[in-house]
């Protein structure tokens, strides 16, 4: 099964990385959902919630204050001004 390689970083700290089957975010052009095989995209990300469906485990949500969203060759890189894992996700990743 194909999967995405996802990396989320904030301006001053690492947030999350791992394999996923789906990533959702809000961009300046509207909501985007990315699955394996998606065409390349570079977008300005709006403040809001990111949703990641990891290959293993429960859905992860991240609160982000805007930034950039890049997709290329099944790799998703999100560089946010500021971002934090939601509490339930943070507790599960310790």
Give an overview in words.
There is one protein chain. With 94 residues, the protein is mainly β. Helix content is 6%, strand content 66%. Strands 1-2-4-5-6 form a 5-stranded mixed β-barrel. A hairpin with a 5-residue loop joins strand 4 and strand 5.
Helix and strand layout, with pairings?
Layout: E1 4-10, E2 14-27, E3 30-34, E4 41-54, E5 60-72, E6 75-80, E7 83-85, H1 87-92
Mean pLDDT across residues: 92
Helix content: under 10%
Note the gap between the termini.
Answer: 27 Å
Q: What structural class do you assign from the helix and strand content?
A: mainly beta
Strand order of the largest sheet: 1-2-4-5-6
The profile of the biggest β sheet is: 5 strands, mixed, barrel
Domain unit count: 1
CATH homology group: F0F1 ATP synthase delta/epsilon subunit, N-terminal
Overall strand count: 7
Put simply, the count of helices is: 1
The CATH class designation is Mainly Beta
CATH architecture: Sandwich
CATH fold-level topology:
ATP Synthase, domain 1
Low-pLDDT ranges = none
Radius of gyration: 12 Å
Order of helices and strands: EEEEEEEH
Residue share in β-strands: over 45%
Bulk shape:
globular
Gist of the model:
This protein is mainly β and 94 residues long.
Labels describing this entry:
1 helix; mainly beta; 7 strands; ATP Synthase, domain 1; 94 residues; five-stranded mixed barrel
């Amino acid at each position: 099964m194909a999967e995405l390689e996802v990396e989320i970083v904030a301006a001053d700290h690492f947030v999350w990385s791992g394999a996923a089957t789906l990533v959702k975010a809000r961009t300046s052009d509207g909501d985007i959902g990315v699955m394996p095989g998606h065409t390349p995209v570079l977008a300005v990300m709006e403040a809001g919630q990111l949703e990641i469906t990891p290959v293993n485990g429960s859905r992860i949500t991240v609160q982000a204050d805007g930034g950039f969203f890049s997709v290329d060759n099944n790799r998703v890189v999100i560089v946010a001004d500021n971002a934090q894992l939601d509490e339930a996700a943070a507790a599960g990743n310790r």
